[in-house]
Design goal:
Distance between the termini: 89 Å
Radius of gyration: 27 Å
Helix content: over 70%
Number of helices: 3
Order of helices and strands: HHH
Structural class: mainly alpha
Strand content: under 5%
Largest sheet: none
Shape: elongated
Number of strands: 0
Length: 76
């Protein structure tokens, strides 16, 4: 048997793993996800059909909240 053996395993075993900063990794992930959400919102706003759907959904939600607020104040 003539196998070439690399020393990857011995190097990895002797190296000290870097400290993991859980707080910073969560912030980094949140920033990355926020960028994805922003990209998706901009992309959906550029499409005319998607824009109409977004506006329609927001109007329905606002009308529902207005009705609930009016009912609680005794207007309806």
């Amino acid at each position: 048997m003539n196998a070439l053996m690399n020393d990857f395993d011995t190097k990895n075993a002797t190296e000290i793993p870097p400290q993991r900063w859980q707080g910073f990794s969560e912030i980094d992930r949140a920033i990355r996800e926020n960028r994805l959400v922003e990209y998706r919102l901009r992309k959906s706003w550029a499409d005319p059909w998607s824009r109409r759907l977004n506006i329609g959904v927001l109007v329905v939600i606002a009308a529902g909240f207005a009705f609930l607020a009016g009912t609680s104040l005794g207007f309806f």
